[in-house]
Amino acid sequence: MAETPDSRVRDPVFDKNGEDSDGSSSANSNNTPNSEISQSDSPISKNAGSRFPVDARAKSRRLAATLTLEEQVSLLVAADFWRSKAIPEKGIPAFKTSDGPNGARGAIFKAGTKAALFPCGISLAATWNTKLLHDVGQHLADETRARSADVLLAPTVCLHRGPLGGRNFESFSEDPYLTGKLAASYIKGLQGKGIAATIKHFVGNEQETHRMKIDSIIGERPLRELYLKPFEIAIRDSNPWAVMTSYNLINGVHADMHNQTLQKILRGEWGYDGLVMSDWGGVNSIVESIVEGCDIEMPTSPNWRGEKARQAVLDGRLSKEAVEKAVANILYLVERTKGSDMSAELPEREDDRPETRKLIRDLGAEGLTLLKNEGNVLPIKPAQKKIAVIGPNANRAIAGGGGSASLNPYYNTLPLDSIKAVPGREVTYSVGCHTYKWLPLAAEYCTTASGEAGVSLEFYIGDKFEGSPKVIQHRTNTDLFLWDSVPLEATSVWSCHCKTQITPRTSGRHTISFSSVGPGRLYVNGKLMMDLWDWTEQGEAMFDGSKDFLFDVDMKAGVPVELVAKINNEVRPASRQKTVNLTHQNGGCRIGYKEEDKQDYLQEAVDAAKAADVAVVIVGLDEEWESEGYDRQTMDLPKDGSQDRLVEAVLSANPKTIVVNQSGSPVTMPWADRVPAIIQGWYQGQEAGNALADVLFGIKNPSGKLPTTFPKRLQDNPTYHNWPGENMKVVYGEGLYIGYRHYERMAIAPLFAFGHGLSYTTFTYGKPSISSTVLSSSGKVTVTIPVMNSGSVIGAETVQAYIHDEKSRLPRPEKELQAFDKVRLVPGETKDAVLVLDKFSVGYYDTDLKAWIAEVGVFEVLVGASSADIRAKTSFEVKESFTWIF
Ligand code: BGC
């Protein structure tokens, strides 16, 4: 009997965003070395180097066949939150996975082992530099190994379908070719050092709203030509060892059990022989998911596999062959990453290397995108001594987006500090306005009774705080996400006192916020101030948490206030217990704190701008506004116009105003026409501040180009009528036309076009030459174009080649990116940009033929500095139509 997703009780695993979660899995805190969490004793192990015998595939198949059915089904589900199961008696070690795309976080979600924080996906993509992406992969391999992991859960290659996608920052681009090529380089770098890449999320996961239940309705051409394309390119070019399925459904069927995408396309047409793993909690059936090829369920869960899968085999609902195939794929990954190294896993460690720091800083300048620079306001000139640094993001670490891509960085560099570090300048600072989505975390004001910075967590067995605490843990953060780090048995029922004291810096009526995952009560100086024991209103974030509730308390500067949060891990809202079939699950809470505002921030900023030679306004979003788990509600800068008012006010006070916008996706810039200089600052990881200062002062020349179109208004974007869907369905109604494909077809001028990005120098394009005017099915056509640095400083230019199909049977976008080359030039120097095209550059998917086709006719090659700035044209011909599958 087929199990449809709707006919079953959902898997009690987790949806970390909390909005439509039906359950959760147990967490397993295995090891927290070097983290901000105090240590619990745990066994851990030595990581193996990579070994990859030639006959590894055959060996894995043979080994799979020798296992008992019990052993086989035991391998089909993870052992804990991050690891596969080991069968030591059969010489099978476990592999350990780690998030994620811009750093290897290790086994603790929040405040774990410190790690290198790279620029986020879209910032990496803005470099358009495949060589650098390869370097990123190599450095990430070392970082992954330092976390004692073997498999990195990256890269993320879902496309930017619309500007509001919560995880757009984490993925590369709106364009499948750019995404695929960058992913392939990253994967080659990573796997070249023996760490498995896990390309994700396969497929159709372009939004976070209802991500576990949303049905992405996608036509076959957009599915093939856009959303599957980055996976196809990466598999062809770099063969990632693992693929992660997405949470959503695709045209009515969940991704983990989707015959067309997993069996027919991935395994069949593309001949993929690696491992397919589920997203965390993304398995939706016992039988179909295994049959269709989702080999391993992550993380551990009692619901779908193990004994249930064994029973399905015994009942004849599931074939032994299907089980064995999945096991062979799992063993193949084990073989590729660990061989038969059974030595114990080593503790996670830090590995903060100067060469990684340098790479991250270089990636910064290569990705910073100069959107506008009227009158060469940038770089800031030596004579401009007085600099007013203004804005809510100027004195904060805006280093990454939120969710599984986040980690605990080795360090942060703040724009203000890095600007101040440039010699010979007088720097003033004003915040200008607030933008927080939730009250800022209380952590920096918190100390425990023993005087340590942070919070003490006293864990009791059972949910009633009885007896004496079983474990006392110390944390520095008041974002007390506990799913993967409760120092008790994974399935425990527990209760916990979270104790700390806040020492105010000023006297006033200050605000405290509290939200809780399970039942929670917050006491201030012994008095119950917030009772969320039976909360029913779910918040947006907080991984299944309640809404954030605020209250005010009168406090005196320097006089500590005692806070105790009493929480346990009973499921809330209580009504959810039936759906998840569990009474206890995760727990945790978040404590925020903010002191009363007594200044006029806007006026301060205006005064500072007036007194300065130049004003640098650093605005944008942050990891609370842009995160896994939810989408943005608006393209406007938060909050309620405060940042736009700030920019306008500063601009009126000082015409030499430079705006830096830090975000992982487009924002509305109602002031863009009037501000002379705008830098798109992305989230640039641990070197964000230094990289920005390098560019502001012309120490480095920025060379980023937009990997995504910045529209003028949200209403202009292609998904406007179909976002985020209704009744759990989202129709990809714009079909083939996302990003620049849409803006061009509709003749809607964007604010900044795809591929756009300026430099402190200028580039002159020469006349293109073409190696052949005919493209055959196995041939290549190379377009070469000389590019001269016609300005006065060293710079790099990304030359882009778009294909325009003059005539085709089925409609096609006006132009599609099919090649790019980045050339670095000293002033006066000329170099050739080389753009190589082949059959994949001209093909589209014909749904009647069920194949890719290169149609007879002429193809124009549009060579440009952006999708909207075409500098030269040439063309070639396909003499006779031909088709192919992969
Ligand atoms: C995310 C994945 C991530 C996994 C493990 C999921 O919620 O969608 O991208 O790798 O969690 O943290």
Automatic annotation (TrEMBL):
PROSITE patterns: GLYCOSYL_HYDROL_F3, PA14. Residues 450-610 form the PA14 domain. Keywords: Carbohydrate metabolism, Glycoprotein, Glycosidase, Hydrolase, Polysaccharide degradation. One of its GO terms (molecular function) is beta-glucosidase activity. Residues 1-19 have a biased composition (Basic and acidic residues). It catalyses: Hydrolysis of terminal, non-reducing beta-D-glucosyl residues with release of beta-D-glucose. Gene3D superfamilies: Galactose-binding domain-like, Glycoside hydrolase family 3 C-terminal domain, Glycoside hydrolase, family 3, N-terminal domain, Immunoglobulins. One of its GO terms (biological process) is glucan catabolic process. Residues 1-53 are annotated as: Disordered. The keyword Ribosomal protein does not apply. Residues 36-48 have a biased composition (Polar residues). Belongs to the glycosyl hydrolase 3 family. This is beta-glucosidase. It comes from Lachnellula suecica.
